[in-house]
Structures
1.
Amino acid sequence: MNPEPDLSSYLNPPPLLVILSGLSGAGKDAVLAELRKDGPPLEIIVTMTTRALRPGERDGAPYHFISRDRFLAMRDAGEFLEWAEVYGNYYGNSRSEVRAALDAGKDVLLKVDVQGAATIKQLVPEAIAVFLATPTLAMLEARLRNRRTESSSDLALRLKTAARELEQLPRFDYVVMNDEGGIKQAAADVRAIITAEKGRIGRRRPTV
């Protein structure tokens, strides 16, 4: 009788580092809010930024809002896994927070822009990169207009940037479409990706 195979490594797979990126206005914050409601359990790292709070925002949701001087000091000390300047504001994710969560065996999710996603994939090839998009740029434009947080010039810049960001899709592992009213489905698609990746044979632990 053959011995029973050892399945311990499959029953306890290494933690995931998931990157959620995509077009500005595609609904990344809304998808994150939906993912927080129920499983799979995720350690969602809150990005630090120097941009001003918008109506209805508070520190910690959706960002940690810090001064430009503090951000630059952290950047110069190498405290960010990745950082970027986007539309005149700085954004970055704490390297120590990501490492601590992975060391604790937790699946980690980072929300970053396309530039940040490329940086993380280069540093951590094992990371799973998900691109959130709208089916058309016209839908994206309508959503940005409805937010009423950008001037006409800012809106034009974001749409021009979105067209360039779409060219980066081949660098990502998955694309998720957030169609009109489809936040719940988009979040479910991200969950399905995480479930599939947890069961993928031969996946290596991400090293931060």
Note: Residues 18 and 128 are 5 Å apart (CA to CA).
2.
Amino acid sequence: MVGTLGARRVAFLARHGEDHLLAPHRINYRANIFALHRLGTKRMIGVNAVGGIRADMAPRVLAVPDQIIDYTHGRFDSFCDVEGTKVEHIDFSEPYHAGLRAQLLAAAQRAGVAVIDGGCYGATQGPRLETRAEIERMRRDGCDLVGMTGMPEAVLACEIGVEYACIALVANWAAGCGDAAEITMDEVFANLDQATAGLPKLIGALLERIAVA
């Protein structure tokens, strides 16, 4: 979907499909990123529903992570896999674009939307949620958040030369975290409704200041 927000032309793509029919491991991330690139997109903001692992990453919190650990497998995760394409060994030390992250954080401050600066996103295969043991392992690995769609989206954007950052919406405590005995979809959707309430203001504030070029 392409339209305008304020005075800016904006493209929006529902990665799971409009009816949420695509499981995380079945999404064609490569096609999605390339389609947005072909439209002329210079910057991409991935909005990801996640589970909270770190104590301050509670349900309904918004975070702008700065690192990723990839636990996914079997996904088309590089444009170098296309026949005839030269293999590029990109530097992925900083998986999110530092300048775009800074602009997101500044926009959140201007809009009065509370966000947490930083954190490590652990990308899992899905569509099932994780076991308590898996989350405990991820905690030891240094993950603060867990989600299913953060990779290979971030690396594909980097390969194709598009600035990419993430807004993580904490929908629930990850397994074994917080005080919830179990994770229910009713809880997840209620938390997402609250977490997304500030997004229009945040994105609007970002578009007001972000450079056109």
Note: The first strand starts at residue 2 and ends at 5.
3.
Amino acid sequence: MFDLSGKVAIVTGCNTGLGRGMALALAQAGCDIVGFNIVPADETATAVERMGRRFHDIPTDLSTAKAEDLIARATAAFGRIDILVNNAGIIRRADALEFSERDWDDVIAVNLKAVFFLAQAAARQFIRQQTAGQTTGGRIINTASLLSFQGGIRVPSYTAAKSGVLGLTRLLANEWAKYGITVNAIAPGYMDTDNTIALRADAARSKEILDRIPMGRWGLPADLAGPVVFLASDAAAYVTGHALVVDGGWLAR
């Protein structure tokens, strides 16, 4: 049920962190990988190819790129697409009273606008493939956040975007179920990635965070391996519109 052999997965932002972890997990399950990255994903490519899978990197800035063009290029690389993982994201930190319009627009463009239009373009391609008898259905997995459920502090545009990702996930699941396309989200907790460098470097804030996590540690990219393979596989064929929280128990506390 978890075998993804012969599938092609797009993973945005897979040059590092959670995106790399999910790309490697999907490759290990059998996928060829297409990456959309602003920084070359050389290490990810090497690791995927060592598993005997193919990797094709498409350098892009998701804040300005045209989603239809990216999906067309990804499809041309390996002849089809089956899975889209909308992972790429950025964060800006400042008090809400001081937060700039530029920081608002930059985060929304990558974390919300690009998520919608890539999902839209991928869904259109899934439907074209069905019409041509190539594939059936498709899988879209968005990266949400604990801040899809909570307000947080000092990250207004990030919180707004991730709350929007959760809403979009549910809406798209409703509209596209009839095409056999499932749309789900993974909501990571506090993870050891570039986005949390500032938090982990602040000893007092880091202790506050760890004290609230029942499992007592920061999450790792490997912690998303099982969840992303599950949501991409036949094991989750009847799962759609769901946000799978991977937070070490944070929301339960």
Note: Strands lie at 8-12, 32-37, 55-59, 83-86, 138-143, 181-188, 243-246.
